[in-house]
Amino acid sequence: MNSSQKIEIIVGFSTHRIEVLPFAKNFMERADIIILEEPPNENFRLVLEGKISEEDYVLNEEFWFPEFEKQTLKLLKNFHQQGKKIFQIEPYLEGVKILQQRAEGIVSHQSIDEVLLERIAETEKNAIGKLLRFYEVSLTGDFEKIVDSVKDFSKADAERFRLRDQLRVEAILKVLLSLKQGLKKVYVEAGTIHLYFKKLLQLKTLSLGKVSQVFLLQKVLKSLVGKPYVFPPGELLTLRYIFNRKENPKTENLLAARSLVYIKIIPKEEFLPHEENPFPHFKEELRAIKLVERLDFEDCKRLYSKLFWIKDYKEARKLVEDHLKSR
Question: Could you list the residue range(s) of the whole structural domain that residue 320 is in?
């Protein structure tokens, strides 16, 4: 490869929402290869080759957002037919999958570094342990202890994200080096919290090309809030730990407290975009973020016990809105 011929690598920060797909499609269309943020699945190639349907693929796997997955597969199938190379690269989650198979007594024929697998197992065990501790403490009603458990989990989750991002960058680098001859544009899918991944990828590919980033809904967001993306409080807290920001108990406590309210006032089900509301998830999440940004620590403390057993996010949101009006 000529030293002047640099690869253009675009990291598309995305969510698993159908409303982002038209934006992802625009970037994928311009790329020679597409790198997905998911572990390899033996049936994935069969879908791309038209040997099994998108519906059957989704039916036999566990997806939080099945409609998003089906629509994505249809899009990728079209790109595959155009001759684009498509890779599933997520070594950490691949390792987790192997660990789960072993726990179920399933023999995996995938080759993996056992030392690395042990590291993944320890990281996962630590994060899950902290999450279970949060669930346990959340039943006590002691808000300060609950907030501490949120921070403990967020720190463990940050370590998990750092390892995930490191492993994924290493794996992507191997693919780029093997395909670099004639390669011009690469699209890399990444979840919105994976800012550390983009930073690492940039450092590791300096000799190969230029890395740029785009939040897929940034044009929509910029027109509303003047920013390319707005993070919910839980992600802001985790990002502080991922990037080892200087400790600030007041800020961390507030973000943890707000995250406890935020998770109660966002929908869990999958919404489909339509003409009157082309960005249903984005609209709900932005509304929730704006609400919790108005809450101080004591507000969150007062609201938490009232919100705890509420299942309907609209009912929970109304409670928060009424609280803010009554202040």
Answer: 231-327
Number of domains in the chain: 2
**Rounded to whole angstroms, how far apart are CA atoms 327 and 320?**
11
Residues paired with 311 in a beta bridge: none
Whole-number mean pLDDT of the chain? 94
Same domain, 194 and 307: no
Question: How far is Cα 44 from Cα 87, in angstroms, rounded to an integer?
Answer: 10
Same domain, 87 and 188: yes
Cα(57)–Cα(323) distance, integer angstroms: 45
137 and 151 Cβ atoms separated by less than 8 Å:
no
What integer pLDDT is reported at residue 4 of this predicted model?
A: 55
Measured between its terminal Cα atoms, the distance across the chain in Å is: 64
Both 310 and 219 in one domain: the answer is no
pLDDT tens digits, 130-172: 999 999 999 999 999 999 999 999 999 999 999 999 999 999 9
Q: Which of 209, 225, 241 is the last residue of a domain?
A: 225
204 inside domain: yes
pLDDT digits (tens, 9 = 90+) for 27-45: 999 999 999 999 999 999 9
The one-letter amino acid at 22? P
Q: Report CA 282 to chain centroid distance, whole Å.
A: 14
| 179, 203, 225 - which closes a domain | 225
**pLDDT tens readout for residues 280-310:** 999 999 999 999 999 999 999 999 999 999 9
What are the start-end ranges of the H helices in the chain? Answer: 21-29, 44-48, 54-59, 66-81, 91-103, 114-138, 143-179, 195-204, 218-225, 233-242, 249-262, 280-292, 297-307, 313-326
Other CB atoms within a 10 A radius of the CB of residue 220 amount to 18
Would residue 199 count as lying in a domain?
yes
SS3 296: coil
d(CA 137, CA 148): 10
- pLDDT at residue 107 greater than cutoff 70: yes
**pTM for this predicted structure:** 0.93
